[in-house]
Design brief:
binds pyridoxal-5'-phosphate, Aspartate Aminotransferase, domain 2, seven-stranded mixed beta sheet, globular
């Protein structure tokens, strides 16, 4: 087992040190295909592990409740400046601890309890914070949900794309105060323009939740929602490849309300070490090499999707425009559930997550689908050819899921492939 170069300072705790090494080994010897994950750069990891973790900084730059924040103010200001420049936004709040906090803060900033929000249905790709019964969001606000068009076998009109007639009809009928665009399990490009049109027709505000695709937007591979949306929320750790966290961009007129909703509305002291790491990632995302990276993510995803289709999986919506594919497993094997597939792939060293597909007959815990993504392994350097190989390995693992020897052989092939594409190759010491 290789030792992680990042735990070299943990000399006083063998138990944690050993767990970090084991996780380093898992991440670098198995395939990371979870669409919401990535490999942050050593610079991002270093900032996250810095002494900034020691500082209390409730409030915002220039208006803190604690002393000693002169340098911290510069860190947070730098992060905000880099972020507004990256997306061309008026105002940025970089304090949300995660994407869910960012969304709830926006609802709190712009709405009163009980107001209506129109967002995407969960089984069609929406996020828990888009009104799931198990999310606090559904307890404070009234959600109405739009969906995707029906599935069709016509390759030129495959269906399962956002149904804008449905969005408009529901908007007309329910007059929401806020429309939410954006999804967590949707493989198609989300055009902000028709959402803006519909929002204007009914006098609603528009929030674009770009959690998954923020990196693709920053790299110019997907359209920027900032000119269309009143507020844009996102996570910093998915395609954007920063530390775990959230952020909010908004028009100047909502800046004060959004800031108040994050702190003191939602959170206490900000994680300034994470904010420093966010600043590092925003700079990385502004480099020309980041656009090359995000274009490659999409190219890899298209090649991966086509190869998976060739193996007999049905791609929900008929393909992919972003970093992910949502697979309907029933065409591959009517008996195979998402849960069973995820577990079999895990044994073969292929990390994925089960996911509901539109109108899934199975529960969210079992599911008929699987979600895969290319952002992490593209960071590790994999190209189209490797993703074609990965598709074949996945199909083999699922076909031979009852055969331990076959699974062990696939796991060895996976480890060899990952050995050739280590995202931290060359970094032996921080
Ligand atoms: C991931 C995600 C979130 C939440 O992010 P967390 O950091 O996990 O809280 C919100 N919205 C969408 C669309 C997401 O995909």
């Amino acid at each position: 087992m290789s030792t992680s170069p990042f735990d070299a300072w943990i000399t006083n705790d063998d138990e944690v040190s050993s767990l970090l090494s084991q996780e380093w080994n898992r991440q670098t010897s198995t395939l990371q295909l979870i669409a919401s994950e990535n490999f942050a750069s050593p610079a991002v990891l270093a900032a996250t592990g810095s002494v900034l973790t020691n500082k209390y900084a409730e409030g915002y730059p220039g208006r803190r409740y604690y002393g000693g924040n002169q340098i911290i103010d510069e860190v947070e200001d730098l992060a905000r400046r880099r972020l507004t420049a990256l997306f061309g936004a008026d105002h940025a709040n970089v304090q949300p601890h995660c994407g869910a906090n960012a969304n709830v803060a926006v609802y709190q900033a712009l709405l009163d309890a009980g107001d209506t929000i129109l967002a995407m249905r969960l089984d069609q790709g929406g996020h828990l914070t888009h009104g799931s019964p198990v999310s606090v969001t559904s307890k404070y606000w009234h959600f109405v949900s739009y969906g995707v068009t029906p599935r069709s076998d016509d390759p030129d009109a495959p269906g399962e794309h956002i149904d804008f007639d449905n969005v408009r009809d529901l908007a007309m009928q329910h007059r929401p105060k806020l429309i939410v665009a954006g999804a967590t399990a949707y493989a198609r490009l989300i055009d902000p323009a028709p959402f803006r049109e519909i929002a204007d027709e009914v006098g609603a505000l528009l929030m674009f939740d770009s959690a998954h695709v923020a990196g693709l937007i920053a790299g110019g591979s997907h359209p920027n929602p900032v000119p269309y949306a009143d507020v844009v929320t996102f996570t910093t750790h998915k395609t954007l490849r920063g530390p775990r966290g959230g952020a909010i961009l908004c028009r100047e007129e909502y800046a004060k309300k959004v800031d108040m909703a994050v702190f003191p509305g939602q959170q206490g002291g900000p994680l300034e070490h994470v904010i420093a790491a966010k600043a590092v990632s925003f700079r990385e995302a502004a480099q020309p090499s980041f656009s090359v990276y995000t274009d490659q993510i999409v190219k890899n995803s298209k090649a991966f999707g086509a190869a998976l289709a060739g193996e007999g999986f049905r791609l929900v919506s008929g393909g992919t425009d972003n970093h992910m594919a949502v697979l309907d497993l029933r065409d591959f094997d009517a008996e195979l559930t998402g849960k069973e597939a995820q577990e079999a792939l895990d044994r073969a060293g292929i990390t994925t997550n089960r996911n509901q597909i539109p109108d899934d007959p199975r529960s969210p815990f079992i599911t008929s689908g699987l979600r895969v993504g290319t952002a992490a392994e593209t960071t590790a350097g994999m190209k189209e050819a490797q993703f074609v190989t990965v598709a074949a390995l996945m199909a083999r693992a699922l076909r031979s899921r009852g055969d331990d020897a076959a699974i062990a052989k696939i796991r060895a092939e996976v480890a060899e492939l990952c050995g050739a594409f280590n995202p931290y190759a060359g970094f032996t010491k921080l």
